[in-house]
Every structure is written in C-alpha cells, then in structure tokens.
Amino acid sequence: MSTLSHLDAEGAAHMVNVGDKKSTLRTAIASGRITMSANALTAIKNGDAPKGDVLGTARIAAIMAAKKTSDLIPLCHPLGLDAVDVSFGYEDNAISVTATASLTAKTGVEMEAMAAVSIGLLTIYDMGKALDKGMVIEFIRLIAKTGGKSGDWHAPE
Amino acid sequence: MSTLSHLDAEGAAHMVNVGDKKSTLRTAIASGRITMSANALTAIKNGDAPKGDVLGTARIAAIMAAKKTSDLIPLCHPLGLDAVDVSFGYEDNAISVTATASLTAKTGVEMEAMAAVSIGLLTIYDMGKALDKGMVIEFIRLIAKTGGKSGDWHAPE
Amino acid sequence: MSTLSHLDAEGAAHMVNVGDKKSTLRTAIASGRITMSANALTAIKNGDAPKGDVLGTARIAAIMAAKKTSDLIPLCHPLGLDAVDVSFGYEDNAISVTATASLTAKTGVEMEAMAAVSIGLLTIYDMGKALDKGMVIEFIRLIAKTGGKSGDWHAPE
Amino acid sequence: MSTLSHLDAEGAAHMVNVGDKKSTLRTAIASGRITMSANALTAIKNGDAPKGDVLGTARIAAIMAAKKTSDLIPLCHPLGLDAVDVSFGYEDNAISVTATASLTAKTGVEMEAMAAVSIGLLTIYDMGKALDKGMVIEFIRLIAKTGGKSGDWHAPE
Amino acid sequence: MSTLSHLDAEGAAHMVNVGDKKSTLRTAIASGRITMSANALTAIKNGDAPKGDVLGTARIAAIMAAKKTSDLIPLCHPLGLDAVDVSFGYEDNAISVTATASLTAKTGVEMEAMAAVSIGLLTIYDMGKALDKGMVIEFIRLIAKTGGKSGDWHAPE
Amino acid sequence: MSTLSHLDAEGAAHMVNVGDKKSTLRTAIASGRITMSANALTAIKNGDAPKGDVLGTARIAAIMAAKKTSDLIPLCHPLGLDAVDVSFGYEDNAISVTATASLTAKTGVEMEAMAAVSIGLLTIYDMGKALDKGMVIEFIRLIAKTGGKSGDWHAPE
C-alpha cells in the first residue's frame, strides 16, 4: 500500500493545470541589457568581435531559445508561438535586448520573451568575452503582458 | 564558379577552432540574483509559492541547462562536464544563484556556469511570477575562471 | 522510375494520421514502481542519498520527460499538454510513481503519462544506484485513460 | 537611451507573425534522392549494409526530423503535426525519398516535409558511406502544397 | 549578504564531481520486458501491428535514447558513447529488450543502458497499445557493469 | 526463455563499436547548393528576402545542426567538435554552402559536415520560399575527409 500523503504535500513542484482556461490572444515583452567596456562595445559595433557578427548571432539564438522555453523551464507549458521578435539597442556602455512574443493559447508567453532575452544576452557575452570577461548582464524583466485571466500588466516606471 | 570572398569576410560568425589547444583542467564560477517583493520572497522561503518547491526546481533546471549550453549558445563547443554545482542564497529582497562548473577540456566552461545561473533565475521568475511579475534578474556575471591559455581570472571587487 | 511498392508495404512504420479526429479532452494515468533494499529506501526517505533530494529531482525529471515524449517515442504526435502531475508513494520495499497527464487534442496522452513514470523511475535508480545497483523497475502500466474515439479505459484489477 | 533603429532595419531575421492567419488544413509533399554505386545499392537492397537495416532506420530518422523542424530551422514556427508519412523508391542508381506532412494550423508544413526528406537521405548516406563515400544527395524539392492563403502549389514538371 | 548555508545543505541535488576519476573502459548491460496478450504478441511477430514495424522502430528509439540520457536524467554526466547495442527476444507472453553500452570515460554507462531499455519498451507499448492497452513493462534492471573504481558487478541470479 | 537469434540477425541496425579505434585528428569537408530564380537570388543578395538576413541565419543554423548530428542521425556517435566552419558562394542561379568540421576522436566527422550543409540549405529554402517555392537543393556530397583508419579521401573531380 502506498502512503502518498506526505510526499505530495502542497509544496511539491507541479505544472499549473490550464485545461479550464480560455484560449485567448496573449503577448509579452521583456528586455535586459549587458554592460561592457568601451573597447568591447566598439568592437561589436564595428563588426570586429573575435567570433564574428554578434547581434545577428544573438538574435537567432534568442529566437531559437523562445521556442525551447518549455524544455528549459521545468514547469512551463509547451506552446506554439505565433511570433517572436528580437531587437537590440546600443547604450553608452551596454547593449540592450528586447523580445516580444505572442500567441493564442491557454497560458501566457512571458517566459518565452524572458528566455529569448536571457539567451540573447548570454550569446553576446559568449561572443565578447575574449574582449571583456567582466561584462555584466542586468535588468532582465518583463516590460508588459496582455491577455489571459490576469489581464494586462505593465512594469512600473 | 563560386565567389566566396565577400560572403565569408572576417565578420562572419564562426566557432573558434580549439584543435590546437591543450586539454587542461578548467573551472568557472558565475552568479546572479533576482530581486522581488517581500511578499514573494517570504512565500518562496516558506515553501508557499503557487507552483511548489522553487529552489529545488530551479537547481535542477540550472544543472540541466549547463548540459544544454552548446545547444543554446550558437558558437559554444559541446563539452563533457565533470561537475556542475548550483547554490542559492537569500538576500534582503532577492535570491542569489551561484554555479560552479568544471572539466578537463580544450576550452573553458564559463558559458556553462553562466547558462546555469541564467536558467536557474528564469525558473525562479517562472515559479514566482504569480506573486510578483515585477521581479528583476540582475548582476549575472562571471566571478572567476581557472585554466586554459588565458589563465586565471577573477572579477574585480 | 521508382518502384515504391515493396518498400512501403503495410508493415512500414508510420505515424497514425489524426487529421480527421476530433479535438476532445483526454486524460491518462500511469504508474510504476522501483523495488530496492531496505538500506536504500531508508536513505532516500531520510534525505541521505548520495546525490541529494531523490524524489524532488525525479519529479522534475518526470515532468520534463512528459514534455519530451514526441522526441523520444518515434511515432508519437507532438502535443501541447495542459497539465502533468507526478506523485510518489513509499511501499514496504519500493517507491511507486504515478503520473497524470491531460490536454484537449486529437490524440491521447497515454504515452506522456507512461514516459513521465519511466523517467521518474530511472532518475530514482540513478540517484540510488550507489546504494543498491540491484534496484528493479517494474509494473509500469496505464491505469486509466479518458476521452477520444476509443473512450474510457481502466486497467483490470 | 537605446537607439534601436539601425540595428533592427528591415533586413534583420525574424519569424513571420502568423497571429492573424486562419487555421486551415495544410499538406506538403517533398522528395529527393541519393545516387550511389551499384555495389552500395545492391547491399542496401539485400540488407547487407554494414550498419544494418538502412531504409527502416532512415524512415524513423525522417519522421523524427519532421517533429524537430522548428528546432533546426531558426525561423520556423513550432507546429503540432497531424501526420508524417515517409516512403522510399529504388531507382537505377539511386534511392528516392518522399515525405508527406499535414496538419491544421496557421502556417504551412513545407519545411517539415523538406526536413524529413533531408534527414532521411543523410541517414542513408551515413549507413552506406562505408560502401561508397561518393554518394550524392540531390533534387530535394517541394512537390506540392495545399492550404493557406497562398493556396495550392505544384512543382513544374 | 548571502546566507547560503541552509539552502545548500547535504540534501541538495548535485552532480557527482568526476574530475578526479580515471578514464577507463566501462560497459553496462541492462534488460527489461513488456508482457502482453497473445493477440498483441502475434500481431507484432507477424508484422501486423497497426503502426508498422515494432521492433525495428523500438531499436532505433532505444539507441537514440541512450544518446539523450544526460538530457533526460538530471544528474547524469554527458558521455560520448563508443557503442550501444539493442536486442529483442520473444518470450511466451512478452518481449524482452537487452541493451549494452560501452565507452572509455570517467564515469559509468549504466544509465545509458537502462534508458535504452526503458525507451525501447515504451516504444513497443506505443506501437501495440491499439491492440492491448493492458501491456505491462517490468523487470527493468541492470544485468552487469564493468570498469570504474567500484569494479565489476553482476545482478544476483 | 528468450530466443534472440532471428530478431538480432546481421541486418539489425546498430552503432559501430568504436571502442578499439584510435583517437586521431579527423576533418571533413562537405558542400551542396540550392538553385533558385534570378528574382530570389537577387533578393537574397540585396538583403531583401522577406524573413531577413538569409545567409547569416543559414550559417548559424548550419553550425548548430553540426552539433546536433548525433541527435538527428540514429547511428552516429556523439562527438565533441573542435571546429565547424560554414561558408557560402553565389553562383549564377544558385547559392552554394561548404562546411568544414574537425576534431580529435575515434570516429570521423563526415556526418557533421554533411548535416551542416543540409540544414544550411534548408534554412535558405525556408527564408526564400515566399519568393520561389521551386528552389531545388542538390549536389550535397562529401568533398574530402582526412584521418582515421580508412585514411584520406577526396571526391572524384
């Protein structure tokens, strides 16, 4: 006879059951940035980074990561994305990454947007680390989401 | 006849050829943290987060991500890790993640440690976002590396 | 000219075409167990297994395996799970694993539940094998399914 | 402040947003072939190839590749296939592979059929290369597609 | 300041560090079986199962699963297998699967052999479940291992 | 009692056991091309293809595919690549792809180079198919290999 009780108490990890949720349009925007030395930033801007085209590679890595999200984050549901868009911006001592994901589904795409940003930033680190090992990834956060029962949400200014 | 020249200029993305490098012991330590509301932090500490055991799940996600690094970061070499270790710390308004990776190989394990930290933090975000969508991932960086031609490196204080 | 006939006789492996099936709610429950020495069972119960938290790790492995099912079983359709739940029970000389999977789709989730149980049990083996290499995985079977054209089914007592 | 403009010009790689497309029945057929020496072809026909059953293995590889398409081709959408069918034909100095894929979705399954053919042919190469390293894969193309806004299409004779 | 102590107590899941182990030849043999109705067994033997060639498909699934082991079992090390061999046997009311794996590495291949057996059996279940949903997978166990610090081991009779 | 004999006859698919082979430097070069309309070729050259930067994306897809080879081709050994290099050439009515792979291992890297070429070409097809669905992938072949017991090999002119 099994005694399941104490092994499956409230605290056990589990996927949320989305079976009763409605399939609605959902979008999410996330962003983050990586700070770096002037030297590294200039090399990336000029296309002189040692492993080649940094932002083109980071963009593909970010898009592909969004599609792998449910394989990376244990309790995420597998989702069929309608779109993922990744863009970059140069700041004074940093490069920013913004990702937008959308689909019509029973659960949101926040994690897909967050994963795209994270892997995009890691790829920049990988391709620039020969120039500056001290680059720091920071400020990865959700900017906004729409759709679903919890409704729209925007990060505070 | 092909005219390869301008398509494969210096700037094209490419894996670094590590064929001539020596196989040596290499280690890397990376860390990062995720800031959150007192409410979310307390729930995680108390095991009351809505998807269950946050740090246990994040630890497994981080370890598995380290093993997937070359599938996530386009120009990383596939590596056979000897060890990955992931630990967490509670801060005042944040949880920190530290990952240590090691192996004997021709190239370093910085990206494996960085990937473990990043996916560990994303998993915490995923499991806590019903409590606080405004959590922010920050300060992901390499703490130290040892081994290889470029030698030891420590992040500045 | 191709002569396809004998190469594609009835016996060739193929995915069943589910294009004409209706999308309905489907659930599946599977279970199995792993027998082990009293020594190994006590260590796992007490949290003293050499690789750490056995059931927490096995649970995550089981959930992630359910999501990978169509990548593991050649003729399974890729499915977007609504939920997967994994629970454990202590028996006299064994640990049992039960997995429940559900979704609304054109085909059933039996294999997702069976895969979750199998990988959960393999993970327990991996984490306990330093204590007892003679552990045996047994009695992996479908307990029940609901939905779909073939209707409900329950394993005989 | 970010200056996103020149980094995200028209030319940046991106997934097409299929959010506004209708979910309709879509099918695609692709084919290709691999030419080889009479010696290699005879061995494969007779089941004497050094790694064993060539076409049975290539068929499974092709089916599994169709399911991995969105993980292989960076800008493909993840799709839940209804069916994939793979068949082979013997030609005078070649083996041909044909794959048919179908589903009801917002975007087409051309790439799934093309990927199945390509990986099926690569698997034949792998299993026959000890007999003939000079085998050549050729004429991989879309034969026909149906469904979607762009309608039906057939390859010219 | 982090207070890592109680979060990383002895019980936390972790990969064993194999950095100090010697790279030696290691082999493992595992087996298991799936019991089924006479009807299902006859159909499989005769090549009449509804999804086609059962054992050919299960063999490929088993081999591919061995290569995915470190992606399935959270604390397994990624290993570069030298060989995997999978064989089947017909019993009175069952089909048995045996897998042998080998490599020269710092850690053993027991889990690769166990994973091959498990996924091979699940594939048989998948391909036969339209004939008999009550099939039961049982007796998955390690038969023998050689090599490594813990030396040779054989399952008791 | 099992009767393994007829199920595991010579013809069964199996990985070649490379345990007794020497680890030596091995390289492989493969190439292929995709023919297309003048319209499509011009759009790709000018950076006007509808999904964005075609060759940059195809290059990353090709490199990542090389790393996934053992997950795509059932009987390939998992290998730790030292380098993969992918280049493109414009022909009159086609784009050619060449991939070079190398490592020090017990078995060759031909399939890694062939897989890189195949997935690179499929990616070009995917990104150009809105311009020309009739593009044809052809002439994928091994150009040369070095190392290993079978020695050097070059494709006949």
Give the number of domains of chain A.
1
Distance between the termini of chain A: 56 Å
At CATH level 2, the architecture of chain A is: 2-Layer Sandwich
- Gyration radius of chain A (Cα, Å) is 19 Å
Number of strands of chain A: 5
Would you tell me which CATH topology of chain A applies?
Alpha-Beta Plaits
- Class by SSE composition of chain A: alpha+beta
CATH class of chain A, named Alpha Beta
User: What would you call the quaternary organization?
Assistant: homohexamer
Outline type of chain A: elongated
Structure description:
Six copies of one chain form a homohexamer. Chain A has helices at residues 38-45, 54-67, 69-72, 110-128; strands spanning 24-35, 83-90, 94-105, 136-146, 153-154. A five-stranded antiparallel β-sheet of chain A has the order 2-3-1-4-5, covered by helices on one side. Chain A has 157 residues and is of the alpha+beta class. Helices cover 29% and strands 29% of the residues of chain A. Chain A has a single domain, classed as Molybdopterin cofactor biosynthesis C (MoaC) domain (Alpha-Beta Plaits), CATH 3.30.70.640. Chain A is built from four helices and five strands; from the N terminus they run E-H-H-H-E-E-H-E-E. The longest helix of chain A is centred in the C-terminal third of the chain and has 19 residues, at 110-128. At the A-B interface, helix 2, helix 4 and strand 4 of A face helix 2, helix 3 and strand 4 of B.
